[in-house]
Automatic annotation (TrEMBL):
Coiled coil: none
Name of the gene this protein is made from: dhbE
Occurrences of domain AMP-dependent synthetase/ligase (ranges): 35-403
Protein name (database record): (2,3-dihydroxybenzoyl)adenylate synthase
UniProt GO molecular function: 2,3-dihydroxybenzoate--[aryl-carrier protein] ligase; ATP binding; nucleotidyltransferase activity
The keyword rRNA-binding belongs to this UniProt entry's keyword annotation: no
Gene3D superfamilies: 3.30.300.30, 3.40.50.980, Luciferase, Domain 3
One GO term of the biological process aspect: siderophore biosynthetic process
Phylogenetic placement of the source organism: Bacteria, Bacillati, Actinomycetota, Actinomycetes, Kitasatosporales
EC number from the UniProt entry: 2.7.7.58
Keyword Cytoplasm included in the entry's annotation: no
Length: 544
């Protein structure tokens, strides 16, 4: 219910008209997208997982997924959940992920996409900030009891009324399997309205939420499906956490459904789980972050599993080293497609017919001819082609503002609506982008984004911490890991690194955000104007 007052800038009318006239925005909602596919090929399999009893295979056809979405939408409506309501969805890679999000899309309720790794700190924030009325969880995942987490979150979130559990034992909550009811007639949604809230990698104290519309996201799915050559025979293996923007849309599970293909949910990224699934399900395409690509490259030669159906491996989320890129085809026998994307919008791909050197050395070019790219200096002045600078972008599927964050929007967007990506890039003469670095205060830990300020705030909550700065440092496997430089508070009990890590974890922060390393210092290096220099910290100069 629209009782949370918020201001979210959207595309000015002249841009919306242009994007419609150009045919980018087709006026198709997610609800209609699934319905038309189910009508065209009801008996084709839409989604497969291994989450049946005892890990049994489940396969739902398009007709089944469509009906399940209708039935779940009816059951949720009967519980008072409706258009505009926010629902935090925290599910692992199971078929119900798609059932839930399509049910919410049909209701016009907004999924808020949480990751399975999120804990009390993140989830409570999502619930309170969005005024979420429901929270959807697995019972136990990766040895962690999400029902216990939900109990805590429920106590802290005044608007939260429902917790739905996917799994065998709902505990004190309602089993999602008991919710579905006879379908009720629901009006199709307005394609220009917000369909869901995606998470920003973020560089601020609290994560920002990204409002994506049916029109803009369905266009990015269509563009992605074309560029990745998806069709009804494509089988996409969803390896990364399903809610993340990359496995959701590049081309991801939703792009695969757009193309009428089959989504296979992979419960874990390890080769001994993923490789048998590739063989057994005839997987043709998948997407990985660089550290996982490296693990697969090392495991594939000599592995017992036939991976010959795999045509395309997308790699993105963090910079892929050229040397690793060169090893993809020899090791896995498939075409590498680099992808440089962001949940805020812009997605670049190398094309399947790009020459091999371009595929190995660039992060691709944008989906849309209407994606506007600017590479600028610190004063927002355009740089010549080939020079490295800040990437600004605007286009038919890049947001014009975060959800309910006016102050932050004023900094994160230019006055004329370009999103400041925080990435440092250069353009090649062919129009491909090369990611050279980052200006935002973030750690990219093997594709998982950590906002330094968020972690610093948790460290600062410790009574023995006077000051804290979190920066990236090189890691041979992850690319980057996080290092916290901490100044102890004089006259307090001398806290050590393990206790400080435990403190942060116990505050309910996702494990991947807990600093990999903590270094105690007496002072931080400063810049000429007396600000703390993260650049010098990264270079290792804190005085101890
Ligand atoms: C270097 N940095 C990259 C790449 C993303 C597809 C693929 C990835 C994401 C994603 C996504 C990179 N090389 N190939 O949403 O649809 C860094 C940049 C970028 C940030 C966005 C998709 N690919 N990055 O990673 O919202 O810094 O989206 O701004 O999680 O990841 O992070 P995120």
């Amino acid at each position: 219910s629209g009782d949370v007052p918020y201001t979210t800038p959207t595309w000015p009318a002249e841009f919306a008209e242009r994007y419609r006239a150009a045919g980018w925005w087709e006026g198709v909602t997610f609800g209609t997208m699934l319905r038309t596919r189910a009508g065209a090929h009801p008996d084709r399999v839409a989604v497969v997982d291994r989450a049946g009893p005892g890990g049994a295979r489940r396969a739902w056809t398009y007709a089944e997924l469509d009906l399940r979405a209708d039935r779940l939408a009816a059951g949720l409506a009967a519980r008072g959940i409706g258009a505009g309501d926010r629902v935090v969805v925290q599910l692992p890679n199971v078929a119900e992920f798609l059932e839930v999000v399509f049910a919410l899309f049909r209701l016009g309720a907004l999924p808020v996409f949480a990751l399975p790794a999120h804990r009390e700190s993140e989830i409570s924030y999502f619930c309170s900030f969005t005024g979420a009325v429901a929270y959807v969880i697995p019972d136990v995942h990766g040895g962690f009891d999400h029902r216990a987490l939900a109990t805590t979150v429920l106590a802290r979130s005044p608007e939260l009324r429902h917790v739905f559990v996917v799994g065998e034992d709902a505990g004190p909550f309602e089993a999602l399997a008991d919710v579905p009811a006879e379908p009720v007639g629901l009006p199709d949604r307005d394609p220009s309205e917000t369909a869901f809230l995606q998470l920003s990698g973020g560089s601020t104290g609290v994560p920002k939420l990204i409002p994506r519309t049916h029109d803009d996201y369905v266009y990015s799915l269509r563009g992605s499906a074309e560029i990745c050559a998806l069709d009804e025979d494509s089988v996409y293996l969803c390896v990364l956490p399903a809610a993340h923007n990359f496995p959701l849309s590049s081309p991801g599970s939703l792009g695969t459904l757009y193309a009428g293909g089959r989504v296979v949910m992979c419960p874990q990224p390890a080769p001994d789980v993923a490789f048998p699934l590739i063989r057994d399900e005839g997987v043709t395409i998948t997407g990985l972050v660089p550290p996982l690509a490296l693990v697969w490259i090392d495991a594939a030669p000599g592995s017992a599993y036939d991976l010959s159906t795999l045509d395309v491996l997308l790699v993105g989320g963090a910079r892929l080293a050229d040397e690793v890129a060169r090893r993809v085809r020899p090791a896995l026998g498939c075409t590498l497609q680099q992808v440089f994307g962001m949940a805020e919008g812009l997605v670049c791909y190398t094309r399947l017919d790009d020459d091999p050197e371009t595929v190995v050395t660039t992060q691709g070019r944008p989906i849309s001819p209407d994606d506007e790219i600017r590479v600028v200096d610190d004063e927002d002045e355009d740089l010549p082609v080939g020079a490295t600078g800040h990437l600004l972008t605007r286009g038919p599927y890049t947001i014009r503002g975060y959800w309910n964050a006016p102050e932050h929007n004023a900094r994160a967007f230019t006055e004329d609506g370009f999103y400041r990506t925080g990435d440092l890039v250069r353009l090649t003469p062919s129009g491909h982008l090369v990611v050279e670095g980052r200006a935002k205060d973030q750690i990219n830990r093997g594709g998982e984004k950590i906002a330094a300020e968020e972690v610093e705030n948790h460290l600062l909550a410790h009574p023995s911490v006077h000051d804290a700065n979190v920066v990236a440092e090189p890691d041979p496997y992850l690319g980057e890991r996080s290092c916290a430089y901490v100044i102890r508070r004089p006259g307090t009990e001398e806290v050590e690194a393990p206790a400080l890590k435990r403190f942060v974890r116990e505050r309910g922060l996702a494990a991947y955000k807990v600093p990999d390393r903590i270094v105690f210092a007496d002072a931080f290096p400063t810049t000429g104007v007396g600000k703390i220099s993260k650049k010098d910290l990264r270079a290792g100069s804190a005085s101890a």
